[in-house]
Design brief:
361 residues; alpha/beta; nine-stranded mixed β-sheet; 10 helices; 19 strands
C-alpha cells in the first residue's frame, strides 16, 4: 500500500509515498584522538572548501533522549575539531522535510553537511543535490542505500544483536525470549534483528524467539507486548532494540501485569536494551533491566565533525583499524563506514565515568 505508514530509526515516521516523493525531489574527549585515523588516510588532495567554511548539521528528530544528547554534543565536538558548524536543524521525523532541510542548507552556501538520515533510501535525493554542488556529506547512524558520502559514522549494529543474544543466552538456559524490533525497512532494524535471530538459532537452540515488529514506535511496542504477554505469560527475556523509545513502554507494560520484578527476584524477566541513555543506566541500577549496548552519541558527534573536516580538506580514507578502537569497513554499496565501539553495560560497569550516558546532566 503506497500510503502505509512506517517508522525508521528511533521513532521516525515515513511512508512509501513520501519516499517516492523524496526520491524525486575536544572539550570532553582526549585531544589525542583529534588527529585520528591517520593510518587510514588514502589521499590528501585538498577539497573545494580547503577545509574551511560553514557546516550544516541535520538531525532526524529531537523526541528521543539519544538524539537530544547527540544534539548537545554537536557544538562541543565541532569546537574541539575546529569545525564552523551552524545551529543544528531538526527534520522532525519527516524524511521529505529532511530533503528540504538539505536543500536549504546548500542554498545557504554550506561547504559540508553532517546528516543523520531518517530513511536510508529516500536520503539519496538529498545526497545527489549535495554532490551536484560539490558539497561533501558525512552520514551518522544510518548508512544510505545509495548516493555519495565521504564516510558513515555508525556503530556495528550486527554486534548490537549479537551482544544482546549472548547476554540473554548466558542468563537463560531455555524458554521464550522476545525481540522488540525496529523498522525492518531500515538497515539498523534489519541488522539488529537478523543478528539476534541468527545468534540464538546457532548458539542457544533451547531459546524460542518471539518477535514484535514495532517500527521504532513506543505505542506499537506497548500494545503488541501486552498482547504477546497475554498469550505468553511465561516469557523469560526481552531484547529491546532501542531504549530511547522502548524502555518506558516496556517497563510500564510489565508493571501493569505484575511482571516487573527486580533482578535477583523470582520471576524476574531478563532485559537487554540498546542506546546507552541515562534512563537505561538508572533502570540497570534499580534492577529493572539487566544490560544495554551503549551507542556512542558523543563519538557520533565527534567523528561526524572529524570526517566532514577531512572531506572538506580533500582527504579520503581506506578500510582498516583506526587508532580510536574502531574499524573502517567498505559496505557492499562501496561506501566507507567507521564502525565505532559500542560496549555492553551491566550492573558491573554501569557507573563507569567514561560512558557518555553518565556525563549527561
Amino acid at each position: 500500500m503506497a500510503g502505509r505508514t512506517v517508522r525508521n530509526r528511533n521513532g521516525r515516521t515515513t511512508s512509501r509515498a513520501i519516499r517516492a516523493a523524496a526520491a524525486t525531489a575536544c572539550a570532553t574527549l582526549v585531544l589525542a584522538a583529534c588527529g585520528s585515523t591517520k593510518d587510514n588516510v588514502a589521499s590528501d588532495s585538498g577539497g573545494d572548501g580547503g577545509g574551511s567554511g560553514k557546516v550544516g548539521v541535520i538531525l532526524p528528530l529531537l523526541t528521543s533522549p539519544f538524539w537530544q544528547s547527540y544534539n548537545d554534543y554537536v557544538p562541543k565536538m565541532a569546537k574541539s575539531e575546529g569545525v564552523d558548524a551552524l545551529k543544528t536543524v531538526n527534520s522532525n521525523s519527516d524524511p521529505s522535510q529532511q530533503i528540504t532541510d538539505i536543500n536549504n542548507q546548500l542554498n545557504q552556501g554550506v561547504k559540508g553537511l553532517v546528516v543523520a538520515p531518517l530513511d536510508s533510501a529516500a536520503i539519496s535525493a538529498g545526497l545527489d543535490q549535495a554532490e551536484r554542488k560539490g558539497v561533501p556529506v558525512v552520514a551518522v547512524d544510518v548508512a544510505p542505500e545509495k548516493g555519495k558520502v565521504a564516510m558513515v559514522v555508525r556503530a556495528n549494529n550486527v554486534a548490537y544483536g549479537e551482544k544482546a543474544c549472548e547476554y540473554l543466552g548466558k542468563q537463560i538456559p531455555s524458554g521464550k525470549v522476545v525481540q522488540i524490533m525496529g523498522d525492518l525497512a531500515s538497515v539498523n532494524g534489519r541488522d539488529r534483528s537478523e543478528a539476534f535471530r541468527t545468534c540464538v538459532k546457532k548458539n542457544y537452540p533451547k531459546l524460542k524467539v518471539l518477535e514484535i515488529p514495532a517500527k521504532w514506535e513506543s505505542d506499537t511496542a506497548a500494545s503488541k507486548l501486552d498482547t504477546l504477554l497475554n498469550a505468553n505469560p511465561d516469557i523469560k527475556g526481552i531484547y529491546m532494540q532501542a531504549g530511547g523509545v522502548y524502555l518506558a513502554p516496556t517497563l510500564q507494560t510489565l508493571k501493569s501485569k505484575g511482571l516487573l520484578k527486580k533482578a535477583g527476584e523470582k520471576g524476574h524477566i531478563t532485559i537487554v536494551s540498546n542506546d546507552g541513555i541515562t534512563q537505561e543506566f538508572d533502570a540497570i541500577r534499580k534492577g529493572q533491566i539487566d544490560a544495554t549496548v551503549s551507542q556512542p552519541a558523543d563519538l557520533y558527534a565527534k567523528y561526524g565533525m572529524y570526517y566532514i573536516k577531512a572531506a572538506m580538506e580533500g582527504k579520503t580514507f581506506k578500510p582498516g583499524p583506526t587508532d580510536h578502537d574502531s574499524e573502517i569497513v567498505k559496505l557492499p554499496s562501496g561506501i566507507l563506514e567507521d564502525q565505532l565501539p559500542a560496549p555492553l553495560v551491566t550492573k558491573d560497569n554501569v557507573d563507569d565515568p567514561d560512558l557518555w550516558g553518565n556525563t549527561v546532566k
